[in-house]
Amino acid sequence: MRPHAHEHKFFYGMNFEFSVNRHYWESRTITSEVRPITGAHLGRWDLIYNPIMDTDYTGGLGGLQYNPAGRLAYNVNDKWAVAFEEYDGFGTFNQISPLHDQFHEVWAVMDHASNRFIDIEAGVGVGLTAGSDRLTFKLMLSRDLNRRQQPAQ
What we know:
By secondary structure, the protein is mainly beta. It has strands at 10-20, 30-42, 45-50, 53-55, 65-66, 69-75, 80-89, 103-112, 119-127, 135-142. The chain has one domain. Strands 1, 2, 3, 4, 5, 6, 7, 8, 9 and 10 form a ten-stranded antiparallel beta sheet that branches.
């Protein structure tokens, strides 16, 4: 990410993932993802778009899948945010899947940042197409070791 991204109106970054998967989770053992990150802080609002490209290393560059994600968040204060997110899977750049088979989910999400313990992101997602999961819940717990710790009061 851009250094001190929270202090800038426009921010950007790049995430690379290389995965070794179990077959019950993915049909291919080795997969990767390139996730460009772009966003803007507009007062209390955050607008983020990730034009994600995934590959399972079949089909060369034509096998790249386009799976973008977006987020619109309202920061209630410096600790709490509520957000609307969307995750999509259109198929490969060579062959966009029929709408029925595409992956499209919308999410309602809540984030809580903590200086003392762990950050929490929780949400519920609803699929919009037959190629999507019908209902999904998420709970992510994380700890930012670089965040300045506040002394106990």
